[in-house]
Design goal:
single chain, mainly alpha, 7 helices, 58% helix
């Protein structure tokens, strides 16, 4: 059995679910995303966590307007008050993905154009995973981030809805709060 590209653990259920999404080639995107969500929730890679903490105070985002959007950031925390350091490959790949996402005014884009952006982000995710060599707590924190980011991108790619684009945008905001 192969190791998870994200966690270096055998039998990573998040990666197994992502392979299901890829193998279906998005023909049944909502079914695949449901499988991904169920697999991730029920069989996580020991990424437990009681919620998302505020990077500034450590307080819960329970009453934040972003709470629902960021609730999927399973137990994401800062590194003793500082953002987690990612390696050059991961930083560069995230910069490319964010540039692709932010290059247009999303409110002005059509549904097919938003789907196209989602497809570009999916390619970025594949590049990110293929080149990931990180280990340790920073890697585990990134893995927790990706367990929500990946299905958000898959949803945008499948639907092209503005609400899904907004959700992906919240993940880019969270990325900058927790990683550098």
């Amino acid at each position: 059995m192969s190791e998870c590209a994200l966690s270096n653990k055998a039998d990573c259920n998040a990666c197994a679910a992502w392979m299901v999404v890829e193998s279906l080639n998005m023909k049944n995107a909502f079914f695949a995303m449901s499988l991904f969500g169920i697999g991730t929730a029920l069989l996580s890679c020991n990424m437990g966590g009681a919620g998302v903490s505020s990077p500034d105070t450590g307080d819960s985002f329970a009453h934040s307007s972003q709470a629902d959007s960021l609730a999927e950031l399973h137990g994401l925390t800062l590194n003793q008050g500082a953002r987690w350091q990612l390696d050059e490959h991961l930083r560069t790949t995230f910069v490319k993905m964010e540039a692709s996402f932010s290059s247009s005014n999303l409110a002005d884009l059509s549904q097919p154009e938003l789907k196209e952006i989602g497809g570009e982000l999916q390619q970025g995710i594949q590049e990110l995973i293929q080149g990931c060599t990180m280990v340790g707590e920073a890697h585990d924190q990134l893995h927790g981030f990706l367990t929500g980011y990946i299905p958000a991108v898959a949803s945008l790619s499948a639907s092209g809805l503005k609400s899904d684009a907004d959700r992906v945008g919240h993940y880019f905001e969270a990325y900058h709060q927790y990683f550098e």
